[in-house]
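Example (one chain per record):
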Amino acid sequence: MKLKMNQRNWLLSLHIATGGLWFGTALCSVALALSIVLLEPETAIHGINLARNILGQYIIIPAAVFSVITGVLLCGFTHWGFFKHNWVMAKQLVTLLLIVLGSVWLGPMTKEMTDFSAAGRSPVLQSPDYLMLQTTVTLVGALQTLVLLTVIIVSTLKPWGKRKAVQSSEK
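Predicted structure:
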């Protein structure tokens, strides 16, 4: 079953919106992480960590999941398919890696930073453990956001064309 043009456009709009929400929130999270460097008061640092944790749990994760769902629906019900185009397969793989990295590694580290600053441990910005977490989460979060932007660009430009196996079977 293929979607009608109007249905496809609505689904594509939803897919673009959720991807944009995911990217925008990830970018905000990186900006918040970088702002910690400019702050000293421990309560402000805890507030930033808490905000980043909330952004991740309640906006990034649902937006990422919904982006995947709409992407799967677009692959299943449009001419793009799951395995016809190299750019679609690249997006699928990279998106899966971003979600796994964020869920298994980056999210828990952000939560640990929040817990660390909430516990009121003596100046968090002087703690080597906290600073290592902060540096890692900031750099990996920025890299993840850059990769997500690349996925969005690939979606727009649709490089690499159809897979050779698909091209030869269509002849």
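Caption: The chain has a mean pLDDT of 89.
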